[in-house]
Amino acid sequence: MTVNELLRVTDAAKQDPAASDWEPEIRRYAGDPAALLAVTAVRDYAALGLRQEGDTAVDLEVTAIDLAASEGPTVKIAGCYDSQSTRVVEVESGDVIPPGTLPRYVWDITVTRYDSVPGSPWLVNVLEPLTDRPC
Description:
The protein has helices at 2-15, 23-26, 34-48, and strands spanning 50-53, 57-66, 74-82, 87-90, 96-97, 104-113, 122-134. By secondary structure, it is α+β, with helices and mostly antiparallel strands.
């Protein structure tokens, strides 16, 4: 599933943000605005000397499918993210940055098929954390 692949790539990128330019790999699984947000987050990690430990854990549930949507076929997904599955660490000191969120909260996710792109890929174009909504 495209969402799982995007999470795999963004986990790898945040675990070693300065290793390379992660944008091309992220854009294999995400369209804007989700791609821009993910790329910016990885670049911010690198600039701030941060890295992620652990892999993202999220339970996913398809909530709607619209194959005739004007922007292209879309799938809406509700995710329940476990914020304790990862932690952010300062590279130099090893200090853990506290998450400041609920232990588990909702992610609003939309995946759209981009028929205008060769191969008509399904890309995550919305991945919005709703940190005030527990799940």
